[in-house]
């Protein structure tokens, strides 16, 4: 089967997750459902508590630099993921996918929900760092399981389904976080207990993939250079997108309170609209992909995201901000599946754990640095104009990808 790749090694035969392309059985269905449900706990792991930020800031107002520390509570899991994901990727390749995922789910449920009982901002920061460690294993592990078991059009469909579940899960988590934040700022932390509902499926329905040993062949210098080139581009793109994307959970709660009298639940609904539209478009990723090159898809993605941020920049009320978030979500829904399929297309199977671990590092470094980059800009030009600057940067990214001759082994100049 032709692939749009660089340095792709022959994919070895394996046994593990029962493929959906085989005859249907309940166990196979539950195995796939477990992976998709587990994937809901990754990208939006930090943003779940976003609606509670204003009340949390008021609760800890006596702590030195409380406003900064509260925003750090939102983003410190991203730093922890960035620092530990490469290590978790190595463990995925050495220990296997399932043992790492079991430990990660246990830690996710325990550390994530700890904020409900902790009343020290510093203790919460520690628990959030441990949450990030668990997300590193979950994000890399479930995506690697999908890459282990699918290729070609089926890979695009399942990666799109993963993106859809992540989006729909984000809708549920954000709305639940907003409703719980109206009860008290501690209550959104209870959402992380959902990890314990996924754990039985992982234990009973998923088998560890057994990869056959690949032929001991050294790649040519040209292949290694090409692989490094596309990895740098992939990881750089992931970092850039998350710096831009995470302006939503970090800045939107304060933006909405500045231009409209809204509740925490309304903030959660507004951000959930973005994730809902993201989920809807993710279900259509395989149709968008077709025979299109990754370059063309990235160009489309950045154009749509730029238009969404432009609408937010000129918004004059709650519903116009929500409309901009919906447009932005349309582009974001294609982004993660496209990134995952692209990476799968040129990374050898025996190092996929490490490759997806480094991708998680790039994603979450972008999330962590987002407020560090955006806050000075907000202080200089205000929140609305900050979104306008971000829109201009996204338009520039679309132009740059559109100007590339190709992205991948098949030189796509379409």
Helical segment tally?
15
- CATH top level assignment: Mainly Alpha
Order of helices and strands: EHHHHHHHEHHHHHHHH
Adjacency order of strands in the biggest sheet: 1-2
Overall shape: globular
* Low-confidence sequence ranges: 1-23, 212-217, 409-414
**Alpha-beta content class:** mainly alpha
> What percent of residues adopt helix (DSSP H or I)?
over 70%
Q: Please give the largest β-sheet.
A: 2 strands, antiparallel
Count of the separate structural domains: 1
Within the CATH hierarchy, at the fold level, what is the topology? Growth Hormone, Chain: A
**Arithmetic mean of pLDDT:** 83
- How many strand units? 2
Q: What is the C-alpha radius of gyration, as a whole number of Å?
A: 21 Å
Tell me the quaternary state. Answer: single chain
Question: What CATH architecture do you see?
Answer: Up-down Bundle
Which range does the strand content fall in?
under 5%
Describe the SSE topology.
Elements: E1 14-15, H1 26-39, H2 53-59, H3 66-94, H4 97-113, H5 121-149, H6 152-183, H7 195-205, E2 210-211, H8 221-245, H9 247-259, H10 264-282, H11 285-289, H12 294-313, H13 318-346, H14 352-381, H15 383-403
Antiparallel strand pairs: 1-2
């Amino acid at each position: 089967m032709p692939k749009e790749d660089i340095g792709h090694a022959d994919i070895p035969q394996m046994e593990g997750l029962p493929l959906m392309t085989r005859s249907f059985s309940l166990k196979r269905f539950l195995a796939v459902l477990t992976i998709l449900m587990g994937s809901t706990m990754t990208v939006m792991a930090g943003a779940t508590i976003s609606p509670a930020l204003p009340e949390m800031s008021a609760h800890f107002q006596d702590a030195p630099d409380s406003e900064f520390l509260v925003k750090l509570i939102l983003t410190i899991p991203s730093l922890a993921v960035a620092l530990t994901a490469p290590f978790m990727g190595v463990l995925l390749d050495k220990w296997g996918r399932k043992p790492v995922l079991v430990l990660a789910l246990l830690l996710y449920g325990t550390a994530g929900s700890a904020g409900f009982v902790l009343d020290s901002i510093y203790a919460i920061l520690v628990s959030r760092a441990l949450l990030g460690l668990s997300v590193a294993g979950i994000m890399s592990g479930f995506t690697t399981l999908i890459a282990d078991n699918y290729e070609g059009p089926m890979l695009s469909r399942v990666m799109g389904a993963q993106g859809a579940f992540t989006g729909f899960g984000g809708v549920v988590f954000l709305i639940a976080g907003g409703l719980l934040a109206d009860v008290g700022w501690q209550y959104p932390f209870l959402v992380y207990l959902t990890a314990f509902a996924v754990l039985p499926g992982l234990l009973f329905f998923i088998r560890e993939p057994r990869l056959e040993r690949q032929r001991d062949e050294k790649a040519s210098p040209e292949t290694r250079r090409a692989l490094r080139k596309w990895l740098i581009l992939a990881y750089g793109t992931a970092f850039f997108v998350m710096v831009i994307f995470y302006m939503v959970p970090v800045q939107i709660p304060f933006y909405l309170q500045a231009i409209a009298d809204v509740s925490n639940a309304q903030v959660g609904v507004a951000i959930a609209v973005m994730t809902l539209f993201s989920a809807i478009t993710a279900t259509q990723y395989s149709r968008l992909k077709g025979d299109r090159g990754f370059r063309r898809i990235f160009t489309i993605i950045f154009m749509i995201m730029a238009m969404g941020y432009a609408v937010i920049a000129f918004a004059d009320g709650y519903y116009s901000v929500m409309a901009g978030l919906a447009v932005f979500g349309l582009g974001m829904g294609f982004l993660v599946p496209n990134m995952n399929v692209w990476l799968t297309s040129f990374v050898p199977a025996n190092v996929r754990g490490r490759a997806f671990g480094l991708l998680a590092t790039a994603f979450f470094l972008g999330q962590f640095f987002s407020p560090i980059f955006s806050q000075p800009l907000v202080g200089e030009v205000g929140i609305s104009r900050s979104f306008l600057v971000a829109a201009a940067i996204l338009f520039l990214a679309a132009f740059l990808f559109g100007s590339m001759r190709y992205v991948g082994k098949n030189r796509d100049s379409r």
